[in-house]
Amino acid sequence: MINYKDIQVVFGKGTPLEKQALNGVSLTIDEGSFVTVIGSNGAGKSTLLGVLAGDVIPSGGQVTIGDTDVTRKGTAARAGLVARVFQDPLAGSCGALSIEENLALAARRGESRGLTPALGVKRREHFRERIAELGLGLEDRMGDRMDLLSGGQRQAVSLVMATLAGSKVLLLDEHTAALDPGMAEFIMNLTQKFVSERKLTTLMVTHSMRQALDFGHRTIMLHAGEIVLDVSGDSRKTLQVEDLIAMFRRIRGQTLDDDALLIG
Ligand SMILES: Nc1ncnc2c1ncn2[C@@H]1O[C@H](COP(=O)(O)OP(=O)(O)OP(=O)(O)O)[C@@H](O)[C@H]1O
User: Fold this and answer.
1) 207 alpha carbon to ligand 1 midpoint, in Å?
2) Is the dihedral of CA 201, 89, 206, 242 positive or negative?
3) Domain locations in the chain as residue ranges
4) I want to staple 232 with a disulfide (CB 3.0 to 4.6 A). Which of 26, 54, 111, 218 is the partner?
5) What DSSP assignment string belongs to 37-61?
6) Tens-place pLDDT, residues 94-127
7) Ligand 1 pocket, 42 CB below 6 A?
8) How far is the CA of 37 from the centre of ligand 1 (A)?
9) Where, per UniProt, does this protein localize (predicted)?
């Protein structure tokens, strides 16, 4: 179980650019639950994920993952607990390293260094099998540099990387936003498969209202650093994309320029 308790995040405190990114967010997420997170630009969505990943340390409140209080732990200290996939496929991997080398690094997240060889024969075979499962033919390109792959191929490899070290929490930050619709669908199906097979507790930020309702068990909407909508169960099942867009409009108090962006 994940618990955010009265989380406050202030960037640039005491400067003219001071920004309250999260304002007393409290949220409990059951183990194995898949939560979709929506909200306008600057609402605090990435910050919410950052607080769990450890790259944002809150100025107030407490975050726990299971029995572990991670509030003040940095990213390295919780690397074995939390995995993250970003919008930019290269943000979570190293473009100059091969697919295989990236997988080797990902598999060692949260492990103490020097105990096991990063690329032993067994590990190599395991990586090859995991990549072959993607059905993209990348198992024959294990030595290719990551930055030679297409955006969709990189996101597929990034998802495999995120599930290699056995982290039970998966954070997805608009991980299909830069992909064409066909590839976005492929990556979402893969995401769904990994999440359900591995029973991952998942938070997925998306600007697509369609994705927000089609995937997961629960949807939350952030606005100005606060949770303004939290739906699950039957009330979520009956919710339509149009309802979400109407709420979005009401909360933002303005007309959206491009509904297609949100629906797609
Ligand atoms: N490191 C930082 N330093 C200063 N301000 C920041 C920092 N990170 C985020 N912010 C500010 O905090 C607010 C929340 O940012 P956040 O990235 O969480 O929003 P978001 O909902 O993910 O937005 P988007 O949909 O545009 O990605 C924004 O006003 C942003 O400019």
Assistant:
1) 15
2) negative
3) 2-263
4) 218
5) EEE-TTSSHHHHHHHHHTSS--SEE
6) 999 999 999 999 998 766 555 455 667 888 999 9
7) yes
8) 14
9) Cell membrane
Residue 158, burial from CB neighbour count under 10 angstroms (0-12, 13-18, 19+) = buried
Task: Say if CB 110 and CB 102 are below 8 A apart.
Answer: no
Going by CA atoms, what residue is nearest to atom 7 of ligand 1?
11
Strand partners, 63: 4
Residue bearing tokens 């609402």 = 43
Q: Closest ligand 1 atom to the C-alpha of 222?
A: 21
Strands 169-173 vs 201-205: parallel, antiparallel or unpaired: parallel
Residues 125-182: pLDDT tens digits? 999 999 999 999 999 999 999 999 999 999 999 999 999 988 999 999 999 999 999 9
* Cα-to-centroid distance, 5 and ligand 1 (Å): 20
Please state, in angstroms and rounded to a whole number, the distance separating the CA atoms of residues 38 and 44.
10
Could you give the CA distance from residue 71 to residue 60 in angstroms, rounded to a whole number?
9
CATH of 2-263, one of 2.60.120.10, 3.40.50.300, 2.40.50.100, 3.90.226.10: 3.40.50.300
- CA separation for the pair 81, 152 (Å, rounded): 25
Say if ligand 1 is within 6 A of residue 262 CB: no
